[in-house]
Here is the input.
Amino acid sequence: MYDIHCHLVYGVSDGPGSRDSAVAMLQQAKQNGVTGINAVAHFGPWHESLPEIVGSLQAAADAAGIILHSGIEYDFSHLLEHDLDWRTIGPQSHYLLCDFNSSRIPFSAKARFRELASAGYGIVIVHPETLFGPSEIDTLISLKDTRAVIQINAANLLPDANPRVRSMAWKLLRRNLVDAVASDAHRPDGSRRNRLAEARQLVAAECGNATARILFDVNPERLLVDKAPFETDIQPRAWWRRFLPGR
Ligand SMILES: [Fe+2]
Here is the structure.
């Protein structure tokens, strides 16, 4: 399993505070079945030091059998710049992580995504479930007409997630709008730990093994080699199940 969004870079941005914590995250990733990580920090003045920090984790990653890539999580405002040396999710990929950091999708997003697509770049819209309500779903669908894909966070699918965020995560998933699930882990413990295995198990139970495989295994690997993700084919639930508590 390739984790396309994991804040493994320690000592900068909001990542783990120490190398030991980052190494503990690698162990946790291994326990979750992860074999490759796009190790990111948010874009900032530290961005040039990221490969060196990620490099200092290489031996620990090798020992855990995990391939590391040094990436960046961009804010949409950074994607508006034209002279950045874009850091993608993997060495063969042209997909960039994009956090909107706002509760509405800016009007300029579609035009900019189209420009980036014509320059060869795809956009991974990260965790829209944490930012947006159902009123933004139509806009998200229209962004998918460009080379944009949707990534949700594993932890947001789980029963102890914020109910509003969890409801949106499942809504996107059940409408077959989600392309990949990532950890977005920031710590080896607490609410921002890696919970990919738990989420995978739950998605398999709710939507079937084939869907779980597409979202957790197949599509992250496809994005990594610059291929468009496969669509999921989750069938609508029986009407009466909508009245059950939870999802
Ligand atoms: Fe993130």
Notes: The chain has one domain: 2-243. The longest strand covers residues 148-153. Residues 209-224 form the longest helix (16 residues).
